[in-house]
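lol forgot to send this yesterday, sorry. struct tokens for the thing we talked abt
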């Protein structure tokens, strides 16, 4: 089987074919670094990360480029407001974006920054002017004349046949249905940052950045272009118009768009109080692995409704997978093997891959692995899981984790860094007791907890219940719950 993927351009699920053998060249629109990234942004970035990881697992060499939009209207406005340079303003948020991406398990693409390609963008505009496709307005801004690109609207399936030639729009984002000539290059308004270039002073428009940098890195035609669904129009439509009228060749062959995320059934917005950055959620004590798991659990073209119940459920799922792996690595098994278990492991991998080949059906891929875990746990409990069954099960889990990346238990260290960041930003009031507990509990290694438990047992044997209770309280303070049962003492982290 081969990967089948929905292509926004054809409005169909198609077999994914690449222009070059076994090599994928893909471009994803990255963040505008004027603030911390929110969970909607990361829903899209994780969908792209998952695609990248699955392509790699399928044997492709993947060239994955992402831009950092480090100049746009909002950035110019905010940096002027704060009286800092554009560079100073964006550096902090670019760093935060990279930290957050790593925190949530995103493999880093090749990054390209708009401000490092200003001359190339000016060149591009000049060439479009020479071809009679772009024109200069009186204020020194340049516009793309969409009447010169009859296919305008082919991605968003909008009909612009009755458009007004020469009507213009100079903002980067607009959602009007009527097409307008859009700004390629913007002349500076008083007090705004600008660059001196061969086409005059000013700054590039957002759409131009992606056309220029994607083709520079990946060639005039490449395999796949990705972003959230809001980018279909005007951003990607405009990228296509610019690029294809420049080269006369098809720009990207596949257009991959992730559906917008909702929060508790509503559009995320600051005014509704349901707007969350990744850091907001970690400050509330949620683990990065739970967030990653939740954001991958709904296939990228389905509506993902983010809820706190869903997040708790995701944490339980990750815990179950980690515990299963721990059982396999720490358990004592009788020698030999059980053929059904071997089949169980290889079937789970086949089912997982088949689900992902079906337009990245992540929900089914996860279900396939959970079914394996359930059946293997039953076999474990009944003693029919043997020593030689362990490697195939572990290898199935590893295949799963190459894509979903939640098994490594590194949440506490990541949460600790968010806690330190909050202190450094004087945001102590946002640090919840849940986050403090999670960080504190991780400071006690499993070995250290075990030796405290041994001390507790010894104290109880000596009927020194006062000492036993003191140790129990000490562990509770460190976020360790101790349960005393008739079968002995059990513990777990809160
Ligand atoms: P921005 O930083 O606004 O340029 O957005 C970066 C990426 O996040 C783009 O691909 C957007 O389409 C995507 N995005 C923004 N909001 C959401 C959302 N609520 N759900 C999914 N993707 C989003
Ligand atoms: Zn873009």
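and heres what i got for the seq, position by position
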């Amino acid at each position: 089987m081969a990967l089948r993927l929905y292509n926004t351009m054809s409005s169909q699920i198609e077999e994914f074919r690449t222009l070059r053998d076994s090599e994928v060249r893909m471009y994803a629109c990255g963040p505008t670094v004027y603030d911390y990234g929110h969970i909607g942004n990361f829903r899209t970035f994780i969908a792209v990360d998952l695609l990248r990881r699955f392509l790699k697992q399928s044997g492709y060499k993947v060239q994955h480029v992402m831009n950092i939009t480090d100049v746009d209207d909002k950035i110019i406005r905010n940096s002027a407001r704060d009286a800092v340079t554009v560079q100073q303003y964006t550096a902090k948020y670019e760093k935060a974006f990279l930290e957050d991406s790593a925190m949530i398990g995103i493999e880093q693409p090749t990054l390209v920054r708009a401000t490092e390609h200003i001359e190339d963008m000016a060149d591009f505009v000049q060439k479009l002017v020479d071809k009679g496709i772009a024109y200069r307005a009186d204020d020194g801004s340049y516009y793309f004349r969409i009447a010169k690109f009859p296919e305008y609207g082919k991605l968003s399936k909008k009909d612009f046949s009755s458009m007004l030639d020469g009507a213009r729009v100079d903002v980067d984002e607009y959602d009007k249905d009527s097409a307008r000539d859009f700004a390629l290059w913007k002349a500076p308004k008083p007090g705004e940052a600008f660059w001196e270039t061969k086409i005059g002073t000013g700054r590039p428009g957002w759409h131009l950045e992606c056309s220029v940098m994607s083709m520079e890195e990946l060639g005039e035609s490449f395999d796949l272009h990705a972003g959230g669904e809001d980018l279909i129009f005007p951003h990607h439509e405009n990228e296509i118009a610019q690029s294809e009228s420049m080269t006369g060749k098809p720009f990207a062959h596949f257009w991959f768009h992730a559906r917008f995320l909702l929060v508790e059934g509503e559009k995320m917005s600051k005014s509704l109080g349901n707007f969350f950055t990744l850091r907001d959620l970690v400050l509330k004590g949620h683990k990065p692995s739970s967030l990653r798991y939740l954001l991958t659990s709904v296939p990228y073209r389905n509506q993902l409704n983010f809820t706190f119940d869903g997040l708790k459920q995701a944490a339980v799922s990750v815990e179950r997978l980690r515990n299963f792996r721990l059982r396999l690595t720490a358990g004592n098994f009788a020698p030999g093997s059980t053929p059904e278990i071997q089949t169980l492991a290889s079937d789970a991998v086949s089912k997982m891959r088949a689900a992902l080949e079906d337009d990245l059906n992540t929900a089914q891929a996860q279900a396939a692995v959970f079914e394996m875990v359930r059946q293997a746990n039953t076999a474990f409990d009944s003693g029919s899981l043997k020593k030689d069954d362990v490697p195939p099960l572990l290898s199935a889990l590893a295949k799963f984790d190459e894509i979903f990346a939640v098994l490594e238990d590194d949440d506490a260290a990541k949460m600790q860094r968010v806690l330190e960041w909050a202190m450094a930003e004087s945001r102590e009031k946002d640090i919840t007791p849940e986050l403090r507990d999670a960080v504190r509990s991780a400071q006690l290694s499993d070995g250290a907890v075990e030796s405290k438990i041994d001390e507790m047992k010894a104290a109880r044997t000596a009927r020194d219940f006062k000492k036993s209770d003191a140790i129990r309280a000490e562990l509770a303070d460190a976020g360790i719950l101790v349960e005393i049962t008739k079968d002995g003492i059990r513990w777990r982290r809160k």
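Residues 29, 210, 235 surround zinc ion (ligand 2) (CB under 6 Å). anyway ping me if u want another try
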